[in-house]
Amino acid sequence: MNKKDLAQIKRNLTEASNFMTLNHVLCAFVDADKNIVYSKHQLHGIMPAEEAEIILDTLKKSISGSMGKSMLEFEFNKEAYQEDGAQNILYKTLQSKLLDDEQNTRFLEHITQNIQYESTFAIFAGHFTYDVMTRDKNEEELDVSEKRFNFIVTAFCPVEIADDTLVYDDIENTLFKKHNTDRIVSRTPSDGFMYPAFSENAADINKVLYYTKSAKKPNISIVDDVLGCQFLMTASDEKETFRKVLNEVVGDELDYTVITQVNEKIKKVIDENKYDSDLPSIDDIKLRDILYDVGVSDEKLQTVHKIYKDNVGEKALTAQNLVSTKTVVATPEITINISKEATEKIRTSVIEGRRCLVIDLDDPQITVNGLPTTLH
């Protein structure tokens, strides 16, 4: 599932769309001991308007964000289609369209028995039907094909108990402490998933799309245990792994110029492929080409393949997760933030025997602690 596929689903996941229908919804409440204390499935179309709107909004947020960061596609393990496997359970739930009480119970129990969640939470699942849009032969007018894409979006929402607080009583004209026991279900899911994935205008039942609100701290138990897939690396993990590879390969040749130029080269890869459906990536071959372009020695370049494979394996790294939007030069005592437009104005030099960081200034007017001054 690529950027284009995801954008197509997002674009039509609205009440105003004539191509997408939210059919049934399944709601459940799970206590801190993972007991399903409430569950109910119902037609979305006959729900009270405000309640229906909240659920649709929550489900939409479960496929929000960008591919490669908060939205991650995974392929099921081979064991996932066994009788008690995650893919089999999801597939049968999809086929039931959330109308079968027994299958809904099996679906919810599979989640609660495998998920690691810090507190009580709510589960919302929606069965959607999308009349797949296609373009005519001239790629101009949209039409509806005979294909129908049925899928389920599931959202996991934390539940909060409001703290004791002071409230104002306008009748008694006084403030008093009120003990609040209301359990408020967040409208913003912490995690979610869409099954099956949508690829080339068709369902891909062997893949699932996982959503996390926190790209740096995803709930790995959902991917590994609930969905039966294998979580590899977060966006921040990819960046740290790439830095490790770069450091091991370049070693003593790694300086300010190499670091900033590598960053610029990867940005160029992203810019050149920004209209592609698939996310641009960096593998060992592309990395070697980049390092060659920035002047790394042949001796170092010969180590790229092994060091990359030892740290990353066979997969390519997502290019957008590797770049830094600004350059930060730091010592224990000094930190300098450099915008992307100014990286060439910074250079290293040895002056009177001392290693120095030199900043070229076009304008002698600067600010110190917010106050204007002039360099003489």
Write the layout of secondary structure elements.
Elements: H1 3-12, E1 20-30, E2 36-43, H2 49-61, E3 71-75, H3 86-96, H4 101-114, E4 121-135, E5 142-161, E6 165-169, E7 174-178, E8 183-185, E9 191-195, E10 197-199, E11 202-204, E12 207-212, H5 220-226, H6 235-250, H7 256-272, E13 281-282, H8 284-293, H9 298-301, H10 304-311, E14 317-318, E15 326-330, E16 335-339, E17 346-351, E18 354-359, E19 365-368, E20 371-374
Antiparallel strand pairs: 1-2, 1-4, 3-12, 4-5, 5-8, 5-9, 6-7, 9-12, 10-11, 13-14, 15-16, 17-18, 19-20
Helix pairs in contact: 3-4, 4-5, 6-10, 8-10
Please tag this protein with its features.
alpha+beta; 10 helices; 3 domains; 376 residues; 20 strands
Description of the molecule:
- The structure is a single chain.
- This protein has 376 residues and is an alpha+beta fold.
- It folds into 3 domains: 3-231, no CATH class; 236-321; 327-374, no CATH class.
- It contains 10 helices and 20 strands.
- Strands 1, 2, 3, 4, 5, 8, 9 and 12 form an 8-stranded antiparallel β-sheet that branches. Strands 6-7 form a two-stranded antiparallel ribbon. Strands 10-11 form a two-stranded antiparallel ribbon.
- Strand 10 (197-199) and strand 11 (202-204) form a beta hairpin.
- Helix 8 packs across helix 10.
- The chain is globular, with a radius of gyration of 26 Å.
- The termini are far apart.
- The model has no long low-confidence stretch (mean pLDDT 88).
